Give the backbone structure.
Amino acid sequence: MLIFLYGEDTYRSRQKLHELKAKFIADVDKSGLNIDILIGKNATAQTIQQSYLTAPFLAKRRMIIVEDFFGLRPNKENCEAILNALRRQSENILIFWDGEIKTPLHKPGKELLNNLKNEKLSQEFSALEPHELKRWLSKYCQDKNLKIESNALDLLLDWVGNDLWRLVNEMEKLKAYAAGKKITKTEIELLSIGSFDDNVFNMTDAIGKRQHALALQLLEDQFHLGINHLSLLATITWQFKNLLAVKSLAGENLNEKAIAKTTKLHPFVVKKSLQQVSNFSLEELKLIYNRLLETDQALKNSATSPQALLDLLILA
């Protein structure tokens, strides 16, 4: 069985991946011993083929998860070998998980990608449109037993946009603060918009100015507040992605208003980001953004503590 999960909306695709793993453990292998996870550069044709064709241990089948295979532009030999391996029959489950695929691919890479996209169990997770996003967040609140006024929900969506990682992070904060009461615009303005400067801009500012001690202290403060490490990393990644976009567009001589319109970012975010981009070169922002993506993978698959991984990210 071959499954391909991909697309810009990595929150929903990651949730789908978790569902598939949980179902496999519940129905096939309660021990979890027959699940292999291969990440990025470690996902060579040899390791994928070996894992895919290996017989399961005390279970009916194995599950092999290959993450970020296309993100690091796999070489021709790897793609050709995997295409050949996939033609062989196996009872095992092979899942390819990728975010938005922007990297130009050679002919074997394109062929492999198209084959995966054409699979029956292929699923693309595009960024949600505004009406879809509102419906998704309403259902999320219902599932989490969160009460929120309609105008407060609209304000939050206008502020955060379609970044589901950040939306979930904001909802976690609002849920803790509201303590069962209905969330209103006042809570959104206080906890989301009002605190954004302290929670994100100060930390990215400290990183940009190479004030490592201050950046580490600000990170420590977030952990003491009980912020989930994945949500925290998602928020930091979101801001550096914004800085990268704003820096690039500012280099094309676009003004603040034009940048906000092009990026669909809140004008406040654009204004604050423009104040920070002078601390970084475009190449530095690209490097930091790639490190953030690598840290995201390490947080989800490494035995190292989340705080240690984030500390190393800041000190890099």
